[in-house]
Every structure is written in structure tokens, then in C-alpha cells.
Amino acid sequence: MHSGNIFTSIPDSQDRETFEQIIQDKNVRIERIVSRGQTSPESGWYDQDQGEWIILLKGGAVITFEDGSEVKLSAGDYTNLPAHTRHRVSWTDPGTETIWLAVHY
Amino acid sequence: MHSGNIFTSIPDSQDRETFEQIIQDKNVRIERIVSRGQTSPESGWYDQDQGEWIILLKGGAVITFEDGSEVKLSAGDYTNLPAHTRHRVSWTDPGTETIWLAVHY
Q: Taking the model in full, what pTM does it have?
């Protein structure tokens, strides 16, 4: 049934982001991402073939786009990243876990 | 960009559930559902042609399945409803807004 709680069973890795798949279907992939102050990727940009809709559920983050614009995200904030929207995560809150839900479609 | 905050701009309708579409793509539909003590459907069962992944982000709810089993959901709880999983929302917290995110795929 893929049941659980998005805020619990957090992987205890302190030194890297973690990506956990919740749903993998032919048309959609849902994952939980937990960041702890990391930015990613360290160099370059995410440039994805699929659209990605993200919602930040705990913590805080900033996404920077190739044109220099930024979106700051707090708990409950969501945004849509159409395919090939070049972006990077330029900041995540170093003082807490940042929990994201991402829907790749 | 389909940006927003899942916890804000709550429709002020007090007497019915509200369903708001956030993303509609050929393969996926993401919506916010706000319940205020309602159960649904009023009679019978939901029986959907698509899979539905849901996460409850505020409030509380109980989903009942055709075999009589129940799942109680609190903030952060998620579950997957494969296509044609007959179910109904048998309770939502009457004391607060219950906010759901649903991914139909």
C-alpha cells in the first residue's frame, strides 16, 4: 500500500541528501528528499527530461534558476519545474532537516 | 509556474469539501482537497480508473475500504489507492480544516 508518514523514519545520514522512492509507476514517480544544509548539484544545473512538481514540507530552501531568479520555499510552499527548466538548490536550512516531496511526471 | 502554499488561500466554503487542481498533465493530476468534517462520497464508494496517492497535511481523516478495513490518517500520513480500490472517506476532523494533497496517476 506504500503507506507511511513523510515526517518519520528519516534516514540518519548527516552528510548527504537522501532520496527515497515512494511510488514508481510508468507515468509518475513520487519521492521524498531530505536535505541537511546541502546544496545540489555542487556544480552545474539540474536539467530534467520530465516535469517535476515539488512541495517543501519542513525546513527551508532556495531554488535558483539559470536566469538568476530565485524562489525561497518554506513549509507548504510548492512550485512546478517544467521539463528542462534548468535549476539548482542553492540553499537549504543548515539548522534542521528539510523535507521535500517531489512528483516527477 | 503553479506556485503557491498548500496551507494558505483556503476557500472559505464551510459547508462542502473543495477540490482545487494544481497540476493537470496528460499523465498526472495533482489536487488539493480541503474537508471540514465532511465524509464522501455521501453514498457508495469511490471506484477510480486511475491510481491515487494521497497525503494528509493537516487535520485528520479515516478512509474505509470495502472489506471493512480502515486507515486513520494524521498530518504527514500518506497511502496509495491503486485503481479500482473501492474506498470512502468515513471521517474527517470536524474541528479543523483537513488538507489533503492527491496525486492521480
A: 0.92
